[in-house]
Amino acid sequence: MLRTLALPIVAAAAIAVVPVQAATQPDALVIGMVMDTLTTFDPADVSALEPSEVVANFYDRLVEIAPADLSQVLPSLAESWEYDGEGRVLTFELRSDATFSGGDPVLAEDVAWSLQRVLKLEMVAAGELRQWGFTADNAEQSFVAVDEDTFQVHLPEDIAPELFLVTLAGTVGSVLDRDEVLRHEQNGDLGRNWLISAAAGSGPFTLTDWRPNNILIATRRDDYWGGAPQIRRVMLRHIPESGSQRLQLEAGDLDVAKGLNTSDLGALANKDDFTIERVQGFGFYVLALNQEVEALANPLVREAFRHMLDWPGLAGSVMQFSGIPHQNVVPQGMVGASNALPYDFDLERARELLAEAGYADGFSVSVYPSSASSPFMELAESLQATAAQVGVNVEIVAGNNADRFRNREDYQIFVGRTTSKLPDPLGTLQTHASNPDNSDESRNTNLNAWRVAWDTPELTAMVDALRKPLDPEKRQQLIIDIRELYDAQSPAIIPFFQRVDAFARSANVEGYVGSPIWVTRWDTVTKQ
Fold it and tell me: In 3D, which of 11, 92, 3, 470 has the Cα closest to residue 280?
């Protein structure tokens, strides 16, 4: 039976907690956030932090990972599991008391259908399963209901099963009420349109009201198999302005504020009535250089950009709560990581590299920040100011550019943040260094190397080997080799900061714990 995974852990850090009496109701949790990424409740189409948190509370998964200990996979809908190494089969025994919000029991056929559906729809979450060799063509043979309480995964490739288990703990592993979703199917869409504004899960909360970019209300399930949550109602409010979130948190109108900038976080950090949580994630803040742009495809130019961003100045200002200075593709705290910072902010070195590349007089380039919010615009503006000093004219194209980057559509340099939901180096190495098919037709939109059109055959082969079962020492050395080769190639995706997701909460709120794999739960929350 598989239960314990030897995986590295990165835990959230907190600043002092002192009880305070808030104005919100004692059995309600009110969260302020920027909700423009919350456009569906369909786990197959969720990729951003905010909708992932919502989905995590409407749906359950076979297994879960406690935020405080990412080294262990724990039971959830599955009471137990075992691995048949020879047949590459994972067998899960489901608990018998779990029910969907509509009252029907959670059965193995619901689990199998939910995972098959992700692959058949081929939306954003499908990439999390495709990375293990699952496809729409092999989905029905891979995910099988043996009987009502027994579910099997037939691994299509020789991969490390403990890593695949961690994938099932994320939102992609959410189990849907098959019959309820299919009752709302339209033209073979497997319920996709209905799930834009509805949910059909077995989680501790149900959707009560939803007004896009305004408000969401969720109500607890008193009959939840894991026990009724103490919090009766959760309200999410769309508050895009950081200052407004801070004022409402201080007034007691919010319990949690999840869209605060550095200035407001800093102000609250000095007040005893609030706690600042910093959840260290597995992605990075990056400059992503489109390799279809002639100048940016030159390795010397890419190297110049590594010296062009004033990361020390940013670390002490706008990135104080958003990131940790980090310059390699393996996150801090993981096997094979390096904490060295070899690329100084050095405009003279950048100028020399540009001259060697044939751009002594510089060139013009457009930079697309992920959005107009902090810290993306500040990062773009900082690059604009420093690049001008070495002859590179940077035009900032403001707007919501995340989809442009994701789909490899008409951009030159993208300033944004990347992510991985796998608490293992394979997660970031696979999304940043691997690109098995660089063609436009492959639509490998979950791979950052594809997004920048960076063809990486040698790195791709090495990352592929990392997916397979390996001796721990050999695996560690392979991770180091990949990291060093990535650096040596002057990568098209340049990490400068390791991602940190920071938020503030009233100090009388306990149990609201940020999750590095984005499955923050509300049923653990209590209020003093």
Answer: 11
* pLDDT tens profile 63-122: 998 777 777 899 999 999 999 988 899 999 999 999 999 999 999 999 999 999 999 999
Report the topology of domain 282-499: Dipeptide-binding Protein; domain 3 (3.10.105)
CA 161 → CA 60, 129, 130, 281, 469, distances in Å?
20, 13, 15, 23, 8
Place of tokens 């569906």: 40
pLDDT at 122: 92
Could you give the 3-state DSSP secondary structure of residue 382? helix
Distance between CA 112 and CA 120 in Å, rounded? 12
Question: By the 8 A CB rule, do 256 and 30 touch?
Answer: yes
Question: Across the chain, what does the average pLDDT equal?
Answer: 93
pLDDT > 80? residue 22 = no
- In sequence order, the β-bridge partners of residue 323 are 499
- In 3D, which of 225, 223, 229, 207 has the Cα closest to residue 94? 225
Q: What DSSP line would sit under 480-508, residue for residue?
A: HHHHHHHHHT--SEEEEEEEEEEEEEETT
The set of residues, in sequence order, having a beta carbon less than 8 Å from that of 166 and lying 6+ positions away, is 5, 7, 65, 73, 422, 423, 424, 517
Nearest in space to 431 (alpha carbons), one of 519, 328, 499, 329: 329
Burial class of residue 384, CB neighbours in 10 A (0-12, 13-18, 19+): middle
Round to whole Å and give the CA distance between 184 and 271: 49
Query: Using alpha carbons only, what angle is made at residue 519 by residues 89 and 374, rounded to the nearest 5 degrees?
Result: 135
DSSP 54-82: HHHHH---SEEEETTEEEEEEESSEEEEE
Please answer whether residues 265 and 502 qualify as being in contact, where contact means their C-beta atoms are separated by less than 8 angstroms. yes
d(CA 506, CA 136): 45
In tens, the pLDDT along 431-447 reads 999 999 999 998 888 89
Rounded Cα–Cα distance for residues 204 and 58 (Å) = 6
Stated as kind and residue range, the H or E segment containing 431 is: helix 425-433
Across the strands, what pairs with 112? Answer: none
Owner of token pair 């991985």: 420
DSSP strand E in 271-346: where? 274-289, 323-325
The amino acid at residue 87 is G
Confidence (pTM): 0.87
Amino acid code (one letter) for 295: A
Cβ neighbours for 2, distance < 8 A, ≥ 6 positions apart: 73, 81, 82, 83, 161, 162, 165
In the chain, what are the helix, strand and coil shares in percent, each to the nearest 5? 30, 25, 45
For 511, residues 6+ apart whose C-beta sits below 8 A from its C-beta are 524, 525, 526
CB 230 within 8 A of CB 525: yes
